[in-house]
């Protein structure tokens, strides 16, 4: 009987994923989320041919030579790969994979939760209830904004952006979008294209980011960008914290220029910006867009599918292309 391929699972994974890894591979299963040094040392000790990696394992050109010579694939159980140098890994002869499709629905669902929570002052309502709800509120009190019928601007009209647009249509929202290139009409599905971010922002009641952390996009939502948004608009981010200048966002929220924000990602993770947490008009979640049983299982299983394919001499199912 042929020996099973040796792999390192360098992060905590759901039970179903761990069970499959133990069944199908000779697996060294981390009991915690390994950092870079731990993962490199464990991979060498185990002679790993594949690594299911995690966000704390930051593999760049300096770390790659320390990996075992028989390593063939680094599988990211997430859509993002900005924690590693993909070009350096590929040049080192490794296949790099991610899981771009399985997160789409849950991320779009959470984006809608943030939109609704920001519009309807959900954070404030929750705090009132948890504090004991000691007074009645009358007609002028605690008024939110009705999301139905508003104009939603989507920045980044990939799979997730299009899924958010589909959900927004259920609220009779008008959908505008900005993308590097205009989509064909079938993918637009009635959404209106704006040729630049600057052209999009003043036209929208709600702006939602769905861009990857691509080069050149860092800090794109700065003071000038927030100033271009409509007074009383809503800002939502489920993409990358690096896309937003948080000083500028805090100022726009404190001044009342923005009505509210809904955020799942931050420049500092974990922890976030305490100034945002202190604002009543910010609805916050701790980078959990993919955190459902179904999606986290699917992410891990697809990463293992990629490892199995490559170690069997087949093409990766979802390779990261440069």
Give the structure's gist in a few sentences:
This protein is an alpha/beta fold and 322 residues long. Helices cover 34% and strands 15% of the residues.
Task: Explain what the structure shows.
The chain has 322 residues and is of the alpha/beta class. The protein has 2 domains: 116 residues, NAD(P)-binding Rossmann-like Domain (Rossmann fold, 3-Layer(aba) Sandwich); 181 residues, 3-Layer(aba) Sandwich (Rossmann fold), CATH 3.40.50. Helices cover 34% and strands 15% of the residues. The protein is built from 12 helices and 12 strands. The longest helix has 19 residues. The radius of gyration is 22 Å and the shape is elongated. The two termini are 38 Å apart. Belongs to the D-isomer specific 2-hydroxyacid dehydrogenase family. One of its GO terms (molecular function) is hydroxypyruvate reductase [NAD(P)H] activity. It comes from Dankookia rubra. This is D-glycerate dehydrogenase.
Helix and strand topology:
Elements: E1 6-9, H1 15-24, E2 26-29, H2 36-46, E3 50-52, E4 73-75, H3 86-91, E5 95-97, H4 104-119, H5 122-130, E6 151-155, H6 159-169, E7 174-178, H7 185-188, E8 192-193, H8 197-200, E9 206-209, H9 223-228, E10 233-237, H10 246-254, E11 258-263, H11 274-278, E12 282-284, H12 293-311
Parallel strand pairs: 1-2, 1-3, 3-4, 4-5, 6-7, 6-9, 7-8, 9-10, 10-11, 11-12
Helix pairs in contact: 1-12, 4-6
Family: Belongs to the D-isomer specific 2-hydroxyacid dehydrogenase family.
GO molecular function: glyoxylate reductase (NADPH) activity; hydroxypyruvate reductase [NAD(P)H] activity; NAD binding
Domain D-isomer specific 2-hydroxyacid dehydrogenase catalytic: 33-320
């Amino acid at each position: 009987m042929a020996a099973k391929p040796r792999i390192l699972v360098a992060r905590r994974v759901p039970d179903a994923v761990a069970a499959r890894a133990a069944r199908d591979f000779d697996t060294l299963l981390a009991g915690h989320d390994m950092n870079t040094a731990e993962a490199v040392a464990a991979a060498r000790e185990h002679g790993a041919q594949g690594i299911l990696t995690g966000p704390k394992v930051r593999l760049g050109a300096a770390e790659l030579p320390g990996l075992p010579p028989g390593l063939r694939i680094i599988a990211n159980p997430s859509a993002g790969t900005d924690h590693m140098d993909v070009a350096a890994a590929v040049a080192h002869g490794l296949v790099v994979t991610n899981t771009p499709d399985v997160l789409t629905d849950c991320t779009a669902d959470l984006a809608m939760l943030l939109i609704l929570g920001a519009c309807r002052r959900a954070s404030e309502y929750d705090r009132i209830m948890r504090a004991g709800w000691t007074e009645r509120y009358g007609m002028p009190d605690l008024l939110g904004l009705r999301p139905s019928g508003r104009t939603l601007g989507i920045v980044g009209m990939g799979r997730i952006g299009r899924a958010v647009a589909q959900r927004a249509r259920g609220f009779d929202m008008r959908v505008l979008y900005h993308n590097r290139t205009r989509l064909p009409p079938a993918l637009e599905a009635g959404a209106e294209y704006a040729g630049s971010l600057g052209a999009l922002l003043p036209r929208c009641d709600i702006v939602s980011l769905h861009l990857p952390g691509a080069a050149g996009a860092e800090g794109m939502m700065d003071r000038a960008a927030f100033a271009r948004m409509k007074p009383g608009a809503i800002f939502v981010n489920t993409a990358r914290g690096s896309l937003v200048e948080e000083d500028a966002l805090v100022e726009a929220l404190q001044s009342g220029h923005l009505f509210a924000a809904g955020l799942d990602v931050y420049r500092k993770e974990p922890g976030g910006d305490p100034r945002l947490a202190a604002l009543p008009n910010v609805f916050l979640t701790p980078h959990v867009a993919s955190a459902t049983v179904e999606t986290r299982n699917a992410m891990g299983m697809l990463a293992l599918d990629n490892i199995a394919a490559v170690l069997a001499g087949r093409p990766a199912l979802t390779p990261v292309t440069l």
